[in-house]
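Hi,

I'm pasting everything inline rather than attaching a file, because the server keeps stripping attachments. The sequence lines come first, and each chain or strand is labelled.
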Amino acid sequence: MLISLSEAAEFLKNCSDAVIITHQSPDGDCIGAGFALKDILEAIGKRSRVVCADEFPKRFDFLTSAGCGEEFEPETIITVDIADVQLMGKLRELYGDKVQLCIDHHVSNTGYAQRTLLDPHASAACELIYELSQEMGVELNEHAAACIYTGIATDTGCFKFDCTTVRCHEIAAELMRSFDINFSKINRNMFDVKSIGRIKLESAVLELMEYYWDSRLTMICATADIMEKMGVDTDDLDGCANLPLQVENAEVGILIKEREPGVYKISMRSANDINVSEICQTLGGGGHAKAAGCLLRGSLDDVKKRLAEAVGKALE
Amino acid sequence: MLISLSEAAEFLKNCSDAVIITHQSPDGDCIGAGFALKDILEAIGKRSRVVCADEFPKRFDFLTSAGCGEEFEPETIITVDIADVQLMGKLRELYGDKVQLCIDHHVSNTGYAQRTLLDPHASAACELIYELSQEMGVELNEHAAACIYTGIATDTGCFKFDCTTVRCHEIAAELMRSFDINFSKINRNMFDVKSIGRIKLESAVLELMEYYWDSRLTMICATADIMEKMGVDTDDLDGCANLPLQVENAEVGILIKEREPGVYKISMRSANDINVSEICQTLGGGGHAKAAGCLLRGSLDDVKKRLAEAVGKALE
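And the predicted assembly:
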């Protein structure tokens, strides 16, 4: 059942306690939303605890180190930023069919919870947590403010992406006005730094860049051979799918990963108006307009040729 | 003479026309400020023209392609984002002693103009242009809105840096609410794309990274030998000074450029609280707290050792 902001606020005011679940492979938005909601509930005297199937990455220590809350037998189960019950990971078994409230901003939300506060126009789950705090009349503390700022910055690429709304900027202004958030440090840690291994990986992978159609299409082919020679695990390539789009004028960027001999996993990204989901559909795959994929079989040369042709048609 | 916002607005309302000068090596802020001010003046019937000692970079075509305005013999000379008359470049000779109004946000402004509207707390010159439009009661057009957004995004690293203010976010919210700015495209072009040559240069330079003090100090030594082997002009290294700080945990990053045998130009950057200006002063140089430099002579090993020691002391 979809519920309104005021209904969700009412529910939170009336619950006796809450376990707040964030999604597996946790990011800045679900961590921010979970810990800010914990602060809000505690401010009105509700025992609460944040749980996650996976460990919180070390770079979010500044949000998580205050602690997740002590264990207790909860009456209320809440999920934040979780569009599908599968994203609860191993916590699904315990809590999957018991979620009383889900707070989310993904249009793809499957409606698995008893009540869902869903705003697909919100840039981040943290935007909804902020609105809830206002609706509930609960004053945020500095930690919750940092949580909410981090979530919004995470999901908007620091106010850079399409999904950035007027409201994002308004909330950021309000948080910066009222609290002493070290936002530039948060942003540096989130956007500007990489591990030494990551820097080496990226510079190795960038060397493999190929250019087609006047560089409007860029392609990186990470064959098993080359990855082994460079000492790179193909799993480490996750997150490299955006690298080909770093090239100016590139409209479509492709990362080809060799799964097994003759089988290639294709990640396709669009910088502007080209719909890569449509291109990938013609190749038996699919996805979103700006991020899609498919699986291709054949020789590498053949695979590259088919990709260049399919993208070429779209670029015409 | 320092003047107030309302005095500057009054001056602009009363001038008959204006040549607006942006600084040499123009960036998004001075271009945005120049072209937005031109729109504002034209909206109240004043002939105006934007001029610059250097060509506007191609990636700012979306702001400049509407044209700089026709040539005319101006009665009023205005500079934007120019802290020192030297930054007018070759236009200094013609206009250097005739500037009637300077609109700037650099604390280092030398006061070379007859009137200076200076707000060192403003994140960008474009923030001041926005305030002027409000003070003058002139409605912005979509082009001026894109100009102002671009300037603020440029100087704040897209709302990422320390200098980002509450007002930046408020203005961004207001511009996005009132105008259809393609801000995500602007941001991609400004922050996410590089030329093919630049990508190759960066990945070559990153290979040279050295690590000291548990990676709290990172150093790239671009000797003439290595640069020649990699086919890189040392001039191309400008803008690489921030690369060493990409490493997580790095607090100080150093780029060493070989000027001539035994003479090294040092660029030092700080990620957090270490004051690199103080470190560089102990080595005969200087600069700002987060970006400073010096010139060192001796063998490369000796230079590196002195740098590692000086930074090591500050890290203690």
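Chain B touches chain A through 46 residues (CB under 8 Å).

If the labels don't parse on your end, tell me and I'll reformat.
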